[in-house]
Amino acid sequence: MGSVNGHAETSVFSEQAAVPLTSPSVTRPTPSDIKEVIARLEVPFHHSVIVWRVMNSTKGKPPRGQVIPYADQRAYTDRLNDLFTPAGWTRDYKVNTTANFQRGKDQKTVAKIVITCELEIFGFGSHSATGEEWADDDNAATSAEAQAFKRACSCFGLGRYLYQFTGVWVDLDGHKRPKRLPKLPAWATPEGWLKGLRPGPCVGASTPADSQPTEPARREATASGEAVDLIRQIEALQEPLDRAMYRGLLRTIAQVWSPRAIKDIAVLRTVLKHMQAAQRGLLRLDAAVNTLGRGGLQPVLRKFNLRSLSDVNDLKKLEQVVLALEALVGEASR
């Protein structure tokens, strides 16, 4: 397993950066170029492209809902096109489906669509992130794709400010739509941001009047935004991963039971990297078991003194089981 200093253990599930078949030749940017580009990516979207989504609601009268702002992925592509032109960046998607498992909300057995997006800005590097949605949703692939793309964009700073919002409670109409939309705080507008306004460590849309922050406060806000993003990505993997694997990785890497208890950004990055590797490993395990049949799994588990898949709670054990199963698949195909 990886250590808590952010250096992850090399694994067969480590993600390899995708290399485009063709990439325009670019001049290596200077540190000042990179700083300027990141600063322009971090500027909030214009208020006209912001939509308020109801995340939670009450059953009382009048009904109330918790709303947060978000932007359609077209706003993200428009910003990238404006800064780099359509030929200056690219994205690559990988689609996987998890095995069926019982959903906690309604106890229904269903799989998840998991999409990984790798976003590359030529000359500036690449970042990848995952999105997921229940397979019984008619728009599962579209939702997971948008989620993965926007999460990858946030790694470059684009749209990351939206993770600062925790939600605001407003009155809803009979169709569960907000009767009145909250007003964006000044720091969440392009004009306010360019004047130097920044949010506190964690805010809602009804934040009191903004103030000019100190440089340490700005750094703290940026780090806090990344932490919120990482925690959300980790928590989103709780259901795709087996409970034992999810809690086992948290316990082994960070000695906690919840990612919200992790205060070190480097540790959060390590946990997410390991969980994403575990998710890829479980997908490979499912593929092998589907080929061999469930009867091929038990001998492999016994070989490693494991009673069931619930005992597979770290990457090393998962890697051993997957490699053994894939070896059997290879033998069976000869």
What is the structure about, briefly put?
The protein is an alpha+beta fold and 334 residues long. The chain is built from 9 helices and 8 strands. β4 (101-102) and β5 (109-110) form a beta hairpin.
Question: Key terms for this structure?
Answer:
334 residues, alpha+beta, Enolase-like, domain 1, three-stranded antiparallel sheet, 9 helices, globular
Structural summary, described in words:
- The protein is of the alpha+beta class and 334 residues long.
- It has a single domain, classed as Enolase-like, domain 1.
- It is 40% helix and 16% strand.
- It has nine helices and eight strands.
- The protein has helices at residues 31-42, 73-84, 140-155, 190-194, 215-236, 243-254, 265-292, 297-303, 315-332, and strands spanning 50-57, 64-71, 89-97, 101-102, 109-110, 112-121, 125-134, 168-171.
- A three-stranded antiparallel β-sheet has the order 1-2-8. Strands 3-6-7 form a three-stranded antiparallel β-sheet.
- Helix 6 (243-254) packs antiparallel against helix 7 and helix 7 (265-292) packs parallel to helix 9.
- The longest helix has 28 residues, at 265-292.
- The relative contact order is 0.13.
- The model is unreliable at 1-24 and 202-223 (pLDDT under 50).
Largest sheet: 3 strands, antiparallel
Query: CATH homologous superfamily, by name?
Result: DNA repair protein Rad52/59/22
* Cα end-to-end separation: 34 Å
Number of helices: 9
- The whole-number mean of residue pLDDT values reads 80
The percent range for helix content is: 25-40%
CATH topology: Enolase-like, domain 1
Oligomer: single chain
